Amino acid sequence: METTKTAKEMSRRQFLTTVGKLGGGAAVFSVMGTLGLLSPETLKAADFVPPDMNELSMSKRGGKKIIILGAGIAGLTAAYELGQAGYDCTILEARARSGGRIWSVRRGTTVAEIGASKQVARFDDGLYLNAGPMRIPQFHVTMEYIRKFGIPIEPFNNVNDHAYYYNEDVGELSGQKIRKREAKADVRGYVSELMAKAVSQQALDLPLTAEEKEKLVAYLRTEGGLDADLFYKGTSRGGYKDEPGARLDAGVVRDPFSMKAIINSGFGNYLSSEYGYDQQMMMFHPVGGIDAIPNAFEKRLKGKIQYHAEVVEIKQSDSGVTVFFKHLGTGETRKIEGEYCICTIPLPVLKSIKADFSPGMKQAIDSIGYASAGKIGLQFKRRFWEEDEQIYGGNTLTNMDISSIYYPPTGYMQKKGVLLGYYAFGANADKLGAMTFREREAHAVNQGAKIHPQYHKEFEASFSVDWKRIKYNLGGWVSYSGDQRQTVYPTLCKPDRRVYLAGEHISYITAWMAGGIESARAVVTDIHQRVMKE
Amino acid sequence: METTKTAKEMSRRQFLTTVGKLGGGAAVFSVMGTLGLLSPETLKAADFVPPDMNELSMSKRGGKKIIILGAGIAGLTAAYELGQAGYDCTILEARARSGGRIWSVRRGTTVAEIGASKQVARFDDGLYLNAGPMRIPQFHVTMEYIRKFGIPIEPFNNVNDHAYYYNEDVGELSGQKIRKREAKADVRGYVSELMAKAVSQQALDLPLTAEEKEKLVAYLRTEGGLDADLFYKGTSRGGYKDEPGARLDAGVVRDPFSMKAIINSGFGNYLSSEYGYDQQMMMFHPVGGIDAIPNAFEKRLKGKIQYHAEVVEIKQSDSGVTVFFKHLGTGETRKIEGEYCICTIPLPVLKSIKADFSPGMKQAIDSIGYASAGKIGLQFKRRFWEEDEQIYGGNTLTNMDISSIYYPPTGYMQKKGVLLGYYAFGANADKLGAMTFREREAHAVNQGAKIHPQYHKEFEASFSVDWKRIKYNLGGWVSYSGDQRQTVYPTLCKPDRRVYLAGEHISYITAWMAGGIESARAVVTDIHQRVMKE
Fold this sequence. Notes:
4-stranded mixed beta sheet; homodimer
């Protein structure tokens, strides 16, 4: 390939080589970023330099016992990274499993929500519900561990124009299931038409040259699928009422909804749900269940996780931390001592644990609210969404309580499937959460059946989770309100003597695994630097 | 579930059951469609009723020999469906493989384009280039055979906001690679801002009530990511210049480009490339290569495909068809006789084959043009697009000759990968096609390296295809011009005595496997009905 290299490239590579000789790999990495060869996301990930085993004598590291509270993604990351550098870590985990909210519900999984009877998952073998996180943006740090651990992944179908919008009480289109492409084509069509005409008729005072206005109109024509006279009259983008086929079967494009109908439907407001930075395609998930991620960490942390250990008190001295925990098997209270403690326990749980935190930290912990979030998995005898409606993954959005239906982004064309019958937040989640398991199931099936009448015939089993009612979590994810990020949050981010908080709540990537990982890495770096200084 | 069934549902089901008793499964299917339980796509697929083996006596069917010309998807479908009904089919195929344009180029694959020397694929084992079709809309009939034959599939990442737009000679943003999300956020932001202000300031004469105008403005606010005063000032949808992270690292949202810059860039015109009916997510492809589709047919057509058989003449009589073909192994000319012939040979090839077609058919065949299309697969030592730039599948679009770069939608996080270095049509395809293999490779690498400087260091091997120069194809897909669909096309759709044409060119789903399948099914139905009438 020497012959195809440009002079510019040559000099850039020579430059990098020179930098490498002077400053090592990290320097090359940094320069590559400056030259635009690496994205901000890559550079972000590179911010973290794992503690180097060679930086400390073995005696110094070996002498440092780190107690980690919680085997969620933050605790696992901290134990893994510190362990790689030779630190002696122990994770205390109340449950019999690692992962925390990263939880794949499978046949036999049980849960007793607070104040409710035990629920047992009756899904067929191989089928599962990812009750917590279920998708990973391709640029999140989470992908680094997937790569490092060789976890098989597949796309998570977060966008599917063949799925539906379905709204009630929205005028003409109430109670109609509309393929997303129909609403998208019509909304973009009408708005582009209005705009294109306004621009071309000089109705708007725009800071653009005539040539730029022409370009803007040309864009609006492509964006809206407008005809030569800038009218939107429907296009195949919205689908057909009669599909095209062989020979003379040219197909018949569907008739667009009226502009009034589409505006009143509210469907347009759903479009931007796909625009969010962390919702844009492509997204991924582990093959076979999201728990492949904690499982991969667990495999590398053999003997370092104490399960069934419910933390009851955190006590600090000038030289260390003592954590008391109840062993849920024997019922006895035990204690463990260490130099430092990393506490990843969600704040609504932590606030009820006895701890000698400073008053400022205590108050900060007490003040933070968590988001409501609930999911239900519905197993069906038949993947009718694929067989009858050609919907392979993606989600249907609705203004009913169930909010959304997610079609399984895996196991295509298999016989059965577990569909996410609702993924609800806020008030909808609270309403559904207040129901019994049976009531939630009935509600999910009845509302879902308005979109998919096949529900009634094909439904087999459900499992629902209301995160506010799940012991050891008590919420979906942190939800800072008002000016809390400026007032109490900074206190949470600082160590309280020898205790460091970590988890998605100690990040600006809340509700994502990446937030837990990034916050754990920050704590790992801090503890290591502190130990090195000692 | 009896308790959760609504009265409405009950009566619907009772109705269906009654219909089923009266009219059988097909009647239920048709009624389900009328009730909106099935999509137009499903109903379309159901249009085809495969010939029933029991409709004809064995002697009648066995006596009907069908000669099929070409083992592409149309020929394979026809042979499979007719074979299921007991017809005696033979496919003549000039190549040593089935599939036609459905072609996965792997290590050792060779091709000699017309007027060029032989090209040998040097890809590593397991890596491949899908030189022809590479993706399947989830609602295409192709999915039926994938389901029937149990072909493993995975998503084809047709949309990826983390990939780039890159244009030259477009003003301020010339020669900059822009994440798609940046352009999308800015285009939608500015246009929504202009529109929202025009609506709210009553600058436009709209046939909407005040309440509807409010809804329109609310939509524009969400669509554009506008602030409370309807200004677009950039949002996280477009990404960050400094990613958010742990603790106090809130991140810094990127600065939007200026409205003028983004309008002049032409990036806005790329957005609608994702809106096309057959380009919308989700799309799929077989795991391990698109040739899994013809291979699955081939397995079910053992002994029915005569390879190395180059058709040299088609001759009809009142009672049958005789096809003469040159066996490319022995060089001898052989003949085969049958009652009917299904000819799937692409028209630019067919027009040079001696045939006693009617003058109208001959003229029609001669008159049709085919599209130019070319691809190059580039194998790289390292999947730098994933490692350095977090791009997992999807495509980058550019106004350079290469037109697009497609990142492999498979094998994520493996060491190496074959990336589609260009997929070009029309004039760009012609320009690239006119080059030697080496020149194409150099051009693809040099232009691609403007977007991915890593190209120069990581490139290993290429394989390129220009479909106009591929023997037995001589074009990408049919391209009817002007009023040809009204004038000559109907002639192609009718049998010429005992010869029926099939292929994507005999459909309104041109350039897609589904077009070949649908057209084959139409011919199968016609021949079967004709035989039954005899």
